[in-house]
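Researcher: Please generate the 3D structure of the following complex. Treat every line as part of one assembly.
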Amino acid sequence: MNKEKETIDDIIEKYPGRPEYLIFLLQDIQSSYHFISPEAMNLVCDHVGVPLTQAYAVATFYQSFSLEPKGEHEIRVCLGTACHLKGGPRVVEEAERKLGIKSGQTTKDLKFTLETVNCVGACALAPVAVVDEEYFPNVTTRKLLKNIDKLSAE
Ligand code: FES
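Model: Done. Output below.
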């Protein structure tokens, strides 16, 4: 899944230069670089023949795209009703303290981005955190911090 070593040109060459491939290209670039830089956006638009304004409209519409650099690992703590009631806010506070950032921010070393979300569809398992694509049901502060330590050491 991690394609860090691929250059933007390599990613672009995988798709035909047609407008319908815009989202696929943006997804691949997001997945490799954790954000879509202005340079990447220009290259993609040139390739698929879509105006920049239209591509930015798409990138800002979908939450999965980021126009700001994001951390290598994305930690999302659910603060939907069920998770909120079962201790989600405390998990967020401890993660903020551990990482030295506020929710919505990225660590300076670009290793972690911490976010809160409004229900990840697993309310029966509240509180829930999602680290990259991995779900942590009934997450405790201890469990999450341990995982952050593990990822920090990689
Ligand atoms: S409220 Fe957290 S998973 Fe639904």
